[in-house]
Every structure is written in structure tokens, then in C-alpha cells.
Fold this protein.
Amino acid sequence: SSDLIRRGILAFRSCMSSHGETIPSVRPTAPPASGSPGADRFVNGLNPNDPKVAAALKACQSKLPSFASGG
């Protein structure tokens, strides 16, 4: 449901913030645009190739709804 998706995205953003990577407040689209791998499409401008961002993504991607985590 859309409520589950919203809660998942909020949990992901909170997790990323707790890992020192605050996601810009641009609202991600749901469902996300195709072509972006896994959680990368939810970082709203953060560089997923940055080691700090990548570590936070790895730690937090399980918070996203299953459609967003690539599996």
C-alpha cells in the first residue's frame, strides 16, 4: 500500500541521516523511475559512488519497500 511505501521511505531517510548522510528534501517518486539500481534512486542528488554515501546506502537499503531495493 502507499502508506507502507511512505513509511519505508521515511525509515530509509531517517536511517541515512543517522549514518551522517542527510537526503535532500526533494520528494522521490513512487514508484521510482526505471533505470536506477536499488536504493540509489532515493538519494535525491547524493553521490552513491561516494564511500560514505555507499556505506549508508548499504546499511539502510533494507528499510525501503521491496520494490525499491532491487529484489
